[in-house]
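task queued by scheduler; priority normal; single chain, no ligands, no partner chains; default sampling; output format set to C-alpha cells
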Amino acid sequence: MKKSILKIDGVQKLTKTSQKQINGGMLSDCVSGCYRFYLSDVNGDFCAVPSPSGAVCFGTIQNNQCCI
C-alpha cells in the first residue's frame, strides 16, 4: 500500500525543541527531575506525577523514584 502525505498550505512543522515540549496535545509545564511520590503502572516501569497546572507528567521509575 502506498503511503500518502497530507499537505496543508500555511502550516509549518514544529521545531525539534517544540516537539519535545508537547505532552497530551498541549505544551507541557512538567518540571524535569525525580519525585518520591508518584503513581505507577502495574508492571512498575512507568509513572505519573501532577504538573504545576494539574496536568499529568509521565516518566519512568528509576531508583524507586518517578523521573520525568
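post-processing summary
- Residues 16-20 form the longest helix (5 residues).
- Strands lie at 22-23, 26-27, 34-35, 39-40, 46-50, 56-62, 65-67.
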